[in-house]
């Protein structure tokens, strides 16, 4: 069963969770043996940009290890997952592909349709 | 011919999104049609089954608890579990790590603890899987 | 893959999401490739089923040969009468969605 995980909704609770929970789940599914690919679309294309969220201190509590989504993409690649980022959504976001990590392969929206057809399950998160 | 098992992944916390009720309606319909259903409750959805949920009166409407007749989400899930006791079967799995960080571990009967590997297994053994994301 | 049916469940309306074009773009593209496609509007997604609703993707979907369904419960919840609905939209119970997504060879995609 080939699974396509589409990630669209970025920075949702990534500080509280210290993870993007869909990228996290994708890594866990890969670890469980899933044949899985990930597509970043919408504002989630920003995950392909190298970023370093500062620590957040609230009184005596601190979020010391915020999510580092671009590194999660590398970890997915290391596990053998294909990671794609929608080119037109990058352009709409004003992000040049030269700003993006090499782990995310730019694809067109037309190619995304191909991917829908090439996978058995399409999970849009 | 319909596939005999449907897996759903849901994410929304109680009382926050319309998708929770839609998911319940899909589950109920599938069970009524004789389809087994697996639910992987991820993130906020693990709180749907919290046993300590309690109905309340509504001072804005001027209604008592009895007059409100307001089932909590755990009541709705319990009703679905009752529909899916045997055949068809409803299997409800709460993501354990999500439960831990939310303190949602005191849940109603018929719910199991699990994780992504369980979701993958359920999806692999189902005719189809529907992911209902949160926003 | 031959014989596959794509079922999109559209829960969003243009006021709460700028991304409502994704379903119609993708559905139309799949139809061009010969795939059968259904879009099932649910929750606030049904707000665009009014014929007079601006920004509705329904005319584009029906022109592309997509089957367009709307959850009758969501419609009633929002007071949308059959007489005000766009042509080509069929109000159906949630059972119809379950029938679709439990058919072999169907891909179910929630938006």
Structure overview:
The complex is a heterotrimer of chains A (125), B (135) and C (111). By secondary structure, chain A is an alpha/beta fold. Chain A has one domain (2-124): 3-Layer(aba) Sandwich (Hypothetical Protein Ychn, Chain: A). Chain A has helices spanning 14-17, 21-31, 69-78, 87-92, 109-118, and strands at residues 2-7, 35-40, 56-58, 61-63, 82-86, 105-107, 121-124. In chain A, a hairpin with a 2-residue loop joins β3 (56-58) and β4. The radius of gyration of chain B is 15 Å and the shape is globular. With 111 residues, chain C is of the alpha/beta class. Chain C has one domain (5-110): DsrEFH-like (Hypothetical Protein Ychn, Chain: A). The longest helix of chain C is centred in the N-terminal third of the chain and has 12 residues, at 21-32. Chain C is globular. Chain C starts with a strand and ends with a strand. Chains in contact: A-B, A-C, B-C. The interface between B and C is medium-sized, with 21 and 21 residues.
Report, as a whole number of angstroms, the end-to-end distance of chain A: 18 Å
Largest interface: chains, residues each: B-C, 21 and 21 residues
Number of helices of chain B: 5
Pattern of helices and strands of chain B: EHEHHEHEHE
Physical arrangement of strands within the biggest beta sheet of chain B:
4-3-2-1-5
Strand portion of chain B = 15-25%
- The coarse overall form of chain A would be globular
Could you describe the largest sheet of chain B, including whether it forms a barrel? Answer: 5 strands, parallel
Number of strands of chain A: 7
What is the number of beta strands of chain B?
5
Rounded average pLDDT of chain B: 97
- Give the topology string of chain A: H per helix, E per strand: EHHEEEHEHEHE
Helicity level of chain A, as a percent range? Answer: 25-40%
* Secondary-structure class of chain A: alpha/beta
CATH architectural label of chain B: 3-Layer(aba) Sandwich
CATH evolutionary superfamily of chain A:
DsrEFH-like
Mean pLDDT of chain A: 97
From the structure provided, what is the oligomeric state, counting identical versus distinct chains?
heterotrimer
List the helices and strands and how they pair.
The complex is a heterotrimer of chains A (125), B (135) and C (111).
Chain A: E1 2-7, H1 14-17, H2 21-31, E2 35-40, E3 56-58, E4 61-63, H3 69-78, E5 82-86, H4 87-92, E6 105-107, H5 109-118, E7 121-124
Helix pairs in contact in A: 2-3
Chain B: E1 5-10, H1 18-32, E2 36-41, H2 65-68, H3 73-83, E3 90-95, H4 96-102, E4 111-114, H5 116-124, E5 128-132
Parallel strand pairs in B: 1-2, 1-5, 2-3, 3-4
Chain C: E1 5-10, H1 21-32, E2 37-41, H2 58-63, E3 67-71, H3 72-77, E4 89-92, H4 94-101, E5 106-110
Parallel strand pairs in C: 1-2, 1-5, 2-3, 3-4
């Amino acid at each position: 069963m080939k699974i396509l995980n589409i990630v669209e909704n970025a920075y949702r609770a990534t500080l509280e969770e210290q993870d993007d929970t869909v990228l996290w789940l994708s890594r866990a599914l890969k670890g469980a043996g899933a044949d899985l690919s990930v597509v970043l679309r919408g504002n989630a294309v920003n995950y392909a940009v190298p970023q370093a969220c500062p620590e957040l201190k609230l009184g005596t509590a601190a979020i010391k290890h915020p999510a580092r989504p671009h590194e999660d993409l590398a970890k997915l690649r290391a596990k053998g997952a294909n990671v794609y980022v929608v080119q037109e959504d990058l352009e709409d976001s004003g992000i040049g592909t030269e700003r993006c990590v090499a782990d995310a392969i730019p694809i067109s929206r037309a190619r995304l349709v191909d991917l829908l057809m090439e996978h058995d399950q399409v999970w849009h998160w | 011919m319909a596939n005999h098992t449907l897996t759903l992944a849901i994410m929304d916390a109680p009382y926050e999104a319309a998708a929770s009720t839609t998911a319940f309606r899909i589950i109920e319909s599938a069970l009524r049609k004789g389809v087994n259903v697996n639910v992987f409750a991820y993130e906020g959805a693990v709180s749907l089954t919290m046993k300590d949920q309690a109905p309340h009166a509504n001072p804005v409407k001027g209604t008592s608890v009895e007059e409100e007749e307001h089932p909590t989400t755990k009541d709705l899930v319990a009703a679905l579990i009752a529909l899916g006791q045997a055949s068809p079967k409803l299997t409800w799995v709460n993501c354990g790590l999500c439960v831990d960080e939310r303190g949602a571990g005191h849940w109603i009967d018929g719910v199991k603890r699990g994780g992504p590997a369980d979701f993958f297994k359920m999806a692999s053994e189902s005719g189809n899987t529907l992911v209902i994301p949160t926003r | 893959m031959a014989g596959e049916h794509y079922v999109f469940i559209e829960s969003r309306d243009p006021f709460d999401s700028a991304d409502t074009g994704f379903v119609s773009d993708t559905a139309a593209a799949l139809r061009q490739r010969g795939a059968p496609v259904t879009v099932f509007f649910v929750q606030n997604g049904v707000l665009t089923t009014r014929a007079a609703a601006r920004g509705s993707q329904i005319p584009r979907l029906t022109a592309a040969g997509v089957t367009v369904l709307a959850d009758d419960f969501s419609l009633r919840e929002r007071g949308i009468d059959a007489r005000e609905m766009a042509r080509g939209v069929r109000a159906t119970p949630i059972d119809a969605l379950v029938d679709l997504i439990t058919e072999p060879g169907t891909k179910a995609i929630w938006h």
